[in-house]
Every structure is written in C-alpha cells, then in structure tokens.
Amino acid sequence: MSNRSTITEFLLLAFADTRELQLLHFTLFLGIYLAALLGNGLILSAVACHHRLHTPMYFFLLNLALLDLGCISTTLPKTMVNALWDTRAISYQGCAAQVFFFLFFISAEYYNLTIMAYDRYVAICKPLHYGSLLSSRACAQMAAAAWGSGFLNAALHTATTFSLPLCQGNAVDQFFCEVPHILKLSCSHAYLREVGALVFSVSLVFGCFVFIVLSYVQIFRAVLRMPSEQGRHKAFSTCLPHLAVVSLFISTGIFSYLKPPSISSPSLDLVVALLYSVVPPALNPLIYSMRNQELKKAVRKLFPYMLLKHP
Fold first, then answer.
1. Which DSSP letter does residue 162 get?
2. Which positions fall inside the G-protein coupled receptors family 1 profile domain (predicted)?
3. For labelling, which of 162, 176, 246, 266 has a CA lying 20 to 30 Å from the CA of 275?
4. HSE-CB for 239 with a 13 A CA cutoff
C-alpha cells in the first residue's frame, strides 16, 4: 500500500502541553481505568460465582462487562503511556490495531445492548415464552452473533480505512485512532471508498435503534397495565438501567459521528469521544447495580468469598 511506505507512525492529540498537566491527566485516567476494571470485574465475578444470576439477563450483562473492559482497554492505556512518557506517537500497526479492536468492541457492545432490549421485552411482554425464546442455546447463539457481527464490522472498516492513500500528514486530532479523523488525512475524494462500508454500518445501527425503541414502547405499555405497584417497580428496576446505558451510548456515539462539520472543533471532538468511549465502560457497572438488589447482594457476598479463598 502506498500510504504504508510513507507513514510509519501517527501523532495522537495531546491533552496538555505542560508536564504537570500531563501527569494530572495520567492520574485521572488511571483512576477511571481502575474504576472500570474494578466495577466490570465485580460484575463478571458476581455473575460467574452465583448460580441465582445464571439467567439470560445476567448472561448478557456479563457479555456487556467483557465488552466494556475491552473497549476501555483499547484506548486508555496508550493514552496514559503517552502522557507519562511525554509523547504523542503511535505506530502505524498500533493505530490499525486500535481502530480494529475499538470498532470490534464498540460494535459488539451495541448489538449486545440490542439483544438485552429483546431480553427485557420477552421477560415483561411474553413471560410465559421466556424459557423457550431465551434458552441457553438461543442466548449463546445471540451472543455469538453480536461478537461475530462486531468482528466483521471492525474488519470491514479497518481494511477500508487503511487501504486509503494518506496525503494530509500524520497528525490525528483525537486521543486515539478514530476512523473519522484518519479519513481526514486521506487524499481528496479517496475517502469515498469508505462510503459503502459506512452506509452498511449505519443501516445496521439504525435497524438496531428502531428495534430498541419499539421494544421499549411495548415494555412501557405492558408495565403501565400491571395492576401491582410492586410488579411495576420490579419491571422498571430491570429496564431503567439498560435504558440509561443505551441512551448514553447512542446519543454520544451518534453526535460524535454525525455532527455537522460546522460545529466540529478539537476540544468538542475530544469531549464527545471521552463520553462515548470512556464514560460508559466506567459508569455501566454503577448504573446496573444502583437499582438491582440481586446484583448488589451477589457483589456483597463476593468479599467474604474472596477472603476465604485468600486467607
């Protein structure tokens, strides 16, 4: 590839110019990263260790925690290393790997959130068919489809993006390698090759979005018809966290990729990228555990269990 022979590395956007601020950003991101590792790690351990949580809802929550860990581990460690060592560089191969894995995890997470909406729809609107529609085999197949679709989407966009000739320098105006900012470095009109892949992905994203909206319309209609206040409260306690996560994920992602060029600026792009790539993986464990009593109990039981395992 012609662009491969001329560009050997990219320069990522630096958060600060002074050494003191760079170390401050390193400390801040380290705290966020450790919080994400701890929160998602606790969810993984709680679901794996407690048989009462071996249900479809928690199986998909386990997948969400894994994807969140992958997503935040793709972007933040490199940012922290660059801040610590006062550099902006990332190798060509490293940038391509970052694009692939970020798209893989973020796409699979979106598809997994769509499946979670279906899970809540069946649980509330068709409870008598829940066991048959969401059997262990069906859950495994849906999870595999989400991960597989994420892989294909990532491979498609990574191959298309890095086949483009780049003639606008090597400075990426983002703290990680993001497709829209790499496309800005491509030669005039060369980025049109990416249009077909983009249309395909947007169609999938829009289809999932419509499915999620329709699922929640049916869910809220069913919940509001419930005669028992306790039943309504229990239904909302399992749906609202998922709805909050989906809303944060979709709103920031859509704004990042579809915002008008007229309002684009490096600082705004940076904030939006942080909101959809860093904040959800750190906040999702907190959002899901706030109203979920079963998950809270399971997490509390982990601590004496770990103490017994490691005296």
1. T
2. 39-288
3. 162
4. 25
The predicted model scores a pTM of 0.88
The domain that contains 295 carries what CATH number? 1.20.1070.10
In a domain, 152, yes or no: yes
What range does the domain containing 250 cover? 9-306
**Which token pair is 80?**
């922290």
Decide if 311 is inside a domain. Answer: no
Cα dist. 235→204, 211, 224, 239, 291 in Å?
A: 28, 19, 10, 6, 11
> b vs e for 140-151, b when ≥16 Cβ sit within 10 Å of the residue's Cβ?
eebbeebbebbe
Range among 33-37, 157-161, 276-280 rated most confident: 33-37
* Nearest by Cα to 59 from 127, 146, 1: 146
169: left (phi over 0), alpha (psi -120 to 50) or beta: left
Residues 59/271, Cβ–Cβ less than 8 Å? no
pLDDT of residue 2: 47
Give the separation between CA 106 and CA 189, rounded to whole angstroms: 27
Four-residue CA torsion sign, 118, 124, 129, 134: positive
Query: Is 5 exposed, middle or buried (CB count within 10 Å of its CB: 0-12, 13-18, 19+)?
Result: exposed
Quote the percentage of the chain above a pLDDT of 90.
Answer: 38
End-to-end CA distance of the chain: 57
CB within 8 Å of 138: residues ≥ 6 apart: none
* 3 assigned to some structural domain: no
